[in-house]
Amino acid sequence: LLGRDGQVGTWLEGTLSEDNLEPGRALGPLRGIRTLNDQVLAYGMNREVFTLLPSSTLVRRQTREGMTSEVLTRPAHWCRMDAGLDPLNDVPLEDQFDLLIDSSGGIDAIAIDGAGRHVAVGLKGEIWTFDGHRWQLDTSPTTSWLHDIITTPTGLYACGQAGTLLHNAGNGWKAVPHNGGNLDFCAIAEHNNQLYLADGHTVRTLTNEELHLADFGTEQPVPAHTFGTGPDTLVTLAGGEVWHTTRTHPWQCLIG
pTM for this structure? Predict the structure, then answer.
């Protein structure tokens, strides 16, 4: 669990513990936390990205009048992963204020592309790619706030405000036309070869550039502001409502 100011809660084997991404330093507001290929990432405004490094053990052995051993253990800890994201690096102090106003930004979501690279999206349509050492700014076809990004068999999809839906099949980002007008998309998911988009009030599917309300078997649209996905599962969450579906079972209300 991630708090607004960098607090992290962990529930492991029935034990709840609390940590901080960077103790003693004001952060955020943080926007999200994800596990990607067994790597845990936390991110947010001011383009702050952190990764959780696993615990490590160092064994030192010295031979002097016999054998002695020293075992040093470092617990799992958070480390910054934002090289290249800070627009103030290498900028003279007298020029930083104006640059800070012009280049303020934030990270809302991160995914991993087909080449294994981290790709982040966020404020003002910014898209960043991490090459393993530094983040590089990509060319984006929008200035609208991008809220989510996912990996699908056909490439990356990102969505955001004012009906923004983007696709990158490996040859650059392009806008995806659709009939959804200026819906403010806050989440996107892929399930059973179908794209799902949430705008906080409804869930819609995209087929041949046409958006349709997802069929939950209800008279009123089901709201959602985020998705949860598994190998065979899609979950929608909004306020006090949680719905669930699988490849073989229709939507079912779990809470609400």
Answer: 0.87
